[in-house]
């Protein structure tokens, strides 16, 4: 009989201890959940809205494309890379390499901009390479870098010769839509 009483008493004690442990566990879970919600709301307050981040990235991409367009415009290329010690073909190769390098450096910007604007930038790159090749091919074999530069600058002096102003206008239009 004492064995049965002890067992019954032990069972009641165990049930009471388990009940208290369960209540403490539930209380701890409620406390942790409220703390987690509090921390989450604090983090959300510090983080700018996703739309703002996206707009900022897009704006920065358009800024980079504006710079790229300006740097690969024929006038700017010729004035920046002009060197009288080169032949016409050497200067042309340098101009084309510069265009390709600038373009490749900004290739990731296509992820953030309107596809039509990116297509316009790509067309600008291709058009400028084509024009440099055509103008250089039209020069005599012994032409100097000065001859090549003069030929390119004369070409750009004609009305609507460069696509860069059209590309810049497209970029400016997209930026105005963002801001």
What can be said about this structure in brief?
The chain is an all-alpha fold and 179 residues long. 80% of the residues lie in helices and 0% in strands.
Annotate the secondary structure layout.
Blueprint: H1 2-46, H2 50-71, H3 74-81, H4 88-105, H5 115-137, H6 145-157, H7 164-178
Please provide a written account of the structure:
There is one protein chain. The chain has 179 residues and is mostly helical. 80% of the residues lie in helices and 0% in strands. It folds into 2 domains: 1-47; 51-178. It has helices at residues 2-46, 50-71, 74-81, 88-105, 115-137, 145-157, 164-178. α4 runs antiparallel to α5.
**Average pLDDT rating:** 87
Which structural class fits the helix and strand makeup? mainly alpha
Number of helices: 7
- Which bin fits the share of residues in helices? over 70%
Overall radius of gyration: 35 Å
- How does the major sheet shape up? none
